[in-house]
Amino acid sequence: MARFMDVHSGFIGVTPEQLAEAHEADLKIEGDEGVHFERAWLDPEAGKVFCLSTGPSKEAIMRIHERAGHPTTEVYEVTAEV
Amino acid sequence: MARFMDVHSGFIGVTPEQLAEAHEADLKIEGDEGVHFERAWLDPEAGKVFCLSTGPSKEAIMRIHERAGHPTTEVYEVTAEV
């Protein structure tokens, strides 16, 4: 199982409630791909969201995000952390 | 105290040991600015590092990273998280 950080752009003005809803939409279906979205951080001024997850591949992360309604192609496999 | 996610680019081929050293360099001086770097994640293939921190301002984060030898201007204030 690998770990990933993915980045969404264009989320300007998104509220904490909308972030929570988007995260819930991921959680509902993530099991289909063996993915788990652990945490997400929102900067509503810059419109950025960062999601930390585990899963079998970048493609699995992308498929869940796309099906949940917030696709991104910017997914990084993070192989080291402190 | 605000929370931030910052992004470094160009760290291609960086090792886990080098990531740990860079993080240690931040930790040594972060107190000067009231900053704390909590975690960092590395994708050595894409050359990206993501750092999660707390501090008084984006500028404080940038000053510590610059003094520690790895400047970035890509700092996001994350005001919501799940």
TrEMBL record, chains A, B:
Domain of life: Bacteria
Pfam family, one: SCO4226-like
Annotated protein name in UniProt: SCO4226 family nickel-binding protein
